[in-house]
Specification:
Shape: globular
Bound molecules: zinc ion
Largest sheet: 8 strands, parallel
Strand content: 15-25%
Distance between the termini: 11 Å
CATH superfamily: Metal-dependent hydrolases
Number of domains: 1
Radius of gyration: 17 Å
Order of helices and strands: EHEHEHEHEHEHEHEHH
CATH architecture: Alpha-Beta Barrel
Amino acid sequence: MIDSHIHADTRPFEDFEAMAVSGIREAVTCAHDPLEMLSSDVVMAHFRRILKVDPHRAALNGLKLHTALGVHPRAIPHDYMKVLEELPELLSDPSVVAVGEIGLDSGSETEMNVFIEQLRIADETDRRVIVHTPRSGKEEITPLIADLLSQHIDERRAVIEHVNMDVIPLLIESDFMLGLTVQPEKLTPQEAVQILKEYGTDRFVLNSDMSSSPSDPLSVPRTVHRMRISGFGEGDIMRVSEKNIRKFLKIKN
Ligand SMILES: [Zn+2]
């Protein structure tokens, strides 16, 4: 199994062992907003941590981490151009599999500028993008995010994260990959299973988005367990818990 979206820098060492014991072999750790990003230096220190420190902590527990780097919409420093100038070079690190997580949270003009700039970088450097959608205002902001994505990048190169029944009907006709975040304040495993029953497994990836918010490091295995009880076959289970994200991010087996 692969947990397709986590924030390893906020989690204790023991979580990685619990994940590995539960059958998660790999995870994608994404840049986010763990600190108040007062300047580009803070963002760069955060990038260094998720590139170097967390993959090592996870590897000691048998969990392989891949990295996504980008400026999260809640983590935009006043001098964000300095980060964007460095980003193409940083993306060349072999552990980096995507630009992310990027996107919109409040939908402000600055957020839009930073998002579009990073979509350009992803397009130029041939990277996939991991895209955040907000908790509040999801129904209003998600169509805006989808429009900006469609204007700037091939839809097949973006995963739109934290989707729920409010926005899936708007996105299901697109070519985006869709991330089901199973987390105490987002989807329960049962709700994720219900969505997969209704829409099939081709377009979805599972993740915990575990961070300092209420989280469950075992979201993916728990949802897989729930799928099995509900009668899903191994092909469907493999697709949402590993194959789709592996193919999407071009992660070798
Ligand atoms: Zn996240």
